[in-house]
Prior knowledge:
Blueprint lengths: L4 E2 L4 E5 L6 H7 L2 E2 L3 E3 L15 E11 L12 E7 L6 E5 L2 E2 L6 E10 L4 E9 L5 E10 L6 E10 L4 E10 L14 E9 L2 E8 L5 E12 L2 E2 L5 E5 L2 E10 L5 E11 L8 H15 L1 H19 L1 E4 L2 H17 L25 H14 L2 H13 L1 H10 L23 H4 L5 H16 L3 H21 L1 E3 L4 E3 L17 H24 L1 H10 L4 H14 L4 E2 L4 E2 L23 H4 L2 H6 L8 H7 L6 H11 L11 H10 L3 H12 L16 H15 L3 E3 L2 E4 L9 E8 L2 E8 L2 E8 L3 E5 L2 E5 L4 E5 L5
Parallel strand pairs: 27-31
Antiparallel strand pairs: 1-2, 2-9, 3-4, 4-5, 5-6, 7-8, 7-13, 9-10, 10-11, 11-12, 12-20, 13-19, 14-15, 15-16, 16-17, 16-20, 18-19, 21-28, 22-23, 24-25, 26-27, 28-29, 29-30, 30-33, 31-32
Helix pairs in contact: 4-20, 5-6, 5-9, 5-20, 6-9, 6-10, 7-10, 9-10, 9-11, 10-11, 11-12, 11-13, 11-16, 16-18, 18-19, 18-20, 19-20
The structure holds beta-D-glucopyranose (BGC).
The site of beta-D-glucopyranose (BGC) has 11 residues, from helix 5.
Amino acid sequence: MKNYLKHDEWCIIEEGFNREFNEITESVCSLGNGRMGQRGNFEETFTGKTLQGNYVAGVYYPDKTRVGWWKNGYPEYFAKVLNAANWIGIKVEIEEEILDLHKAEVSDFKRVLNMKEGYLQRTFTATLPSGKQVKVDAKRFNSIVDDEAGAISYSITPLNFDGKIVLTPFIDGDIKNKDANYDEKFWDEVHKETAFAEGYVEMVTKKTGFHVVTGQKFQIFQNGKAIEFTSFPQKAEKYVASQVTLSAKANEATVLVKYACNLSSENHAISELLPKAKAYLARIEAKGFDKMLEEQAEKWASKWETNDIVIEGDVAAQQGIRFNIFQMNQTYTGEDARLNIGPKGFTGEKYGGSTYWDTEAYCIPFYLATADQQVARNLLVYRWKQLGKAIENAQKLGFKDGAALYPMVTMNGEECHNEWEITFEEIHRNGAIAYAIYDYVNYTGDEAYLAEYGFEVLLGIARFWSQRVNWSEAKKQYVMLGVTGPNEYENNVNNNWYTSYFAVWCMKYLIEVSEKIKASNPERFQELASLTNLNETDEFDRFNHIIRNMYLGEDKELGIFLQQDGFLDKELIKVSNLPTQERPINQKWSWDRILRSCFIKQADVLQGIYFFEDDFDAETIKRNYDFYEPMTVHESSLSPCVHSIIAAKLGDKARSYEFYQRSARLDLDDYNNDTEDGCHITSMAGTWMSIVKGFGGMRVRNGQVYLAPFVPENWTSFSFKIRFKGNLLNIKTYAHEVLIENILGDDTTIFVHGNTVELKEKSTVSIEQKLLN
Ligand code: BGC
């Protein structure tokens, strides 16, 4: 755990240059606008520890699979988010010396990620080996208004000399993914050109053929005024630059304002990329840096209006939650149904692919409550569009008749994960995808979605489950063999309770949805039945038979659900008995030892209880929580938030807060020692859930909002906003009072601690807080 970033309510602040942590700070200071993003790299040359990272949404490369031992059914490719052209580069030479913070003496260094207005600023004084001193103030952002562009204002002031400064802004497309399987480069050059203070590189990805034009255009200011200058073009492979030599005076700032854009063939015809990039840059240059930044701040302000969580009395927690919300918004805006949320977003390469079950299980609830319902809908439609591929994927593994197995990791619908115990066995992902449909419809009331898209996905998934189970003569029940539950520290287990429970639920839900569509729109049902070759009688009979006869492991004496058949044979030890030096076990223990141990990587039975809590009484939840929690090592960032929500439900405020803390500042404090690879974007939605569903106790049942809020002990108050069917509500909780403001929308009714609360339009209701012990 590290503690070098300053606590502040709205900013992430690094004071003094922490070279050894630079890659961590780069991850944390990543910028994004849903269409493109990049790590918090330096604009000028840096030869120290750094991971240069620029990403363009939706642009990927299928890297040939590399495994030690090939297994039939493995996908041939692993689609990777591509590290793309570096557009932030500005080479700075001072009288022939290159400005490089790795070689210079650095003082007054400050790097600030301003989350309120959405920009990154870096200020420092550098003393070069020659003794020359310069002061730099660099500010940049990825515009959320002009979302294919970014802008940089780079100000450099000589402090102890008058002399020559050479500035060379460039676009460098000669980039390699750090995680390339065969050390190959994934981009080819198509075209490059330069003009005065302007340059473009057009590149194409190998195999996938995505074209991206990255362009730059810049202006230079001295004494606050744009100056005339001469720029010398430079070209190299996949590289364009314009070199400008300037004379600078001591204590007078020279400011280079660079505008850049990334236009991709995902959004434009290939033939139009270059002319459009030129027009784009001309337009934003005319708008100007200050105006763009002003618009950026305004748009962020409107996002915070509906997204913000305010915590009084704990600055570290406030910073933590805002950081999570900020990164979620930078990663996915929901405007484009082809995009999704990668576990690292635009902050690093790890995990390749872009879509995991994380999206449905963790991110959808966040977007449902904080964004227009179209955003969550787009995420669902994304899976609907990939249904054909999910059916092919299942066919490849021997399933038939429209059974669909969604991939564990994907870019375009094809599986790109290749560890047999996950690719073939971690099939619970299908459950989360079905659940997200339920979640969306339950939250928004948009039942039309079911007939339009939902049914087909639910049917494909139900068909898969019905074929994946088998009848056990011994048990006289259906069983599900050879699976990996969410707890990846057990593989190839039989009857993982979570997966089996989910399978049954999916079939039940499909039948319920079918009945609804039949009743409301029988013609559409007929259409869907013929589209999907549904043999309703036979197929539904089988689903119902499985629903009635599925084996779900339970230990009656302990009163718990069994994570899997053999769980109780394990030596049951508590995590508290594990020596600290042996943790995290995934870095310290051999894999077989982990598999045989009782230690649970992430919520498994408890993940199921989280999804289906209304199916169980409080005692059952408590018994399972008391049994499994002490064996959970939380070595997945997705885990603590689920435990936080369950602890809150059980009234264990202190534990709930403890779990929340583990996820809220996970990246800011580099809790798991891995932030340098990128931030844990999808688990950030989980942090949000632990506040809203945990401390806020928010649930949606039968189309209505239920709250059961409490304040963690060391906070004075906290408040969160939710959008719910045309209303925007602000819920502010103190120890003794809850204030609920109906900011937008008509009169509505909600439930707080089980009591009905009428909320008049634009008014605030105060409720005496039930004190939890
Ligand atoms: C977790 C998975 C998760 C993946 C990506 C893994 O460590 O075990 O549940 O989908 O990370 O976040």
